[in-house]
Amino acid sequence: MAKSDYNRGRKPSGNSQKRNPKKPFPKKEGFRKKPQNPVRKSNPDEIRLNRYVANAGICSRREADTYIAAGSVSVNGKVITEMGYKVKLNDDVRFDGRKLNPEKKEYILLNKPKNFITTTSDEKGRRTVMELISNASNARLLPVGRLDRNTTGLLVFTNDGDLTKKLTHPKHGVRKIYHVHLDKNLVLSDLRQIQEGIKLDDGDVTVDDVSYIQGAPKKEIGIEIHSGRNRIVRRIFEHLGYNVIKLDRVIFAGLTKKDLPRGHWRNLTEQEVVNLKMIK
């Protein structure tokens, strides 16, 4: 018998009947949908205490937990040892008695081009260095020290006031090296005079090092100086009868221009920040 003849006389089983796809399956008795846990909304005005301490530049979050557990941190006059404790941004948070600033510390390095002045604003409408880092951060960053309008090179920006003081005060001897292009060759006697020290109208100036640049014309000079006085490098050479055609800061506090084109910025690495904070 052919298979089709065999099947012709059979009644379809209940399982073989087609189900209406629009008709839902019947619900089983006793089935209840498992309730979901409500999502807790975080309060944007609060921050975990360990993060607050870390943002203040004291240490990492993990290290902050250790200090909190040891009783080194107080909030509004009360020592807090509880993990996960949250504080408000306007709370008085202190680490070993020292009041903390909760704003996260940020550090930017810029390779400054010409025709930008080192200030946050200018009443004459001139372009400022702040334009060059406008998309770098939402924090209020300030330039560390100054480069005049026509001087190019390395400039640091940060909201870390303690580091700013360290990098700008002459007593810390922060290393700054400039590549100088003069309008004429620097004679050897003038080079030696700079090495011995120059007396300007506002006092004596001592340089850390000065030399011709190897393989370059004697119009190109390298000079290392830690003085932060206004236009100090230009004034040294002008005092001896030279005009500075180009002035470029190539090293600042151990930072270099490597892989940083003119007019571009980058964030400092964690190790670079650590190195800056270790300056004595």
Question: Can you describe this structure?
Answer:
The structure is a single chain. This protein is α+β, with helices and mostly antiparallel strands and 280 residues long. It contains 7 helices and 17 strands. It has helices at 3-8, 49-55, 61-69, 161-168, 188-196, 232-239, 270-277; strands at residues 46-48, 73-75, 78-79, 86-88, 93-95, 98-99, 107-112, 142-143, 152-158, 176-182, 198-200, 203-205, 209-212, 220-224, 244-252, 255-256, 265-267. A hairpin with an 8-residue loop joins β8 (142-143) and β9 (152-158). α2 (49-55) crosses α3 (61-69). The longest helix has 9 residues, at 61-69. It is elongated. The termini are far apart. Residues 1-9 and 11-16 have low confidence and may be disordered.
* Beta strands, count: 17
CA distance, first residue to last residue? 103 Å
The class by helix and strand makeup works out as: alpha+beta
**What share of residues are in beta strands?**
15-25%
Helicity, as a percent range: 10-25%
Mean pLDDT: 86
Q: Report the biggest beta sheet as strand number plus sense, adding barrel if it closes.
A: 9 strands, mixed
Low-confidence stretches: 1-9, 11-16
Multimerization status: single chain
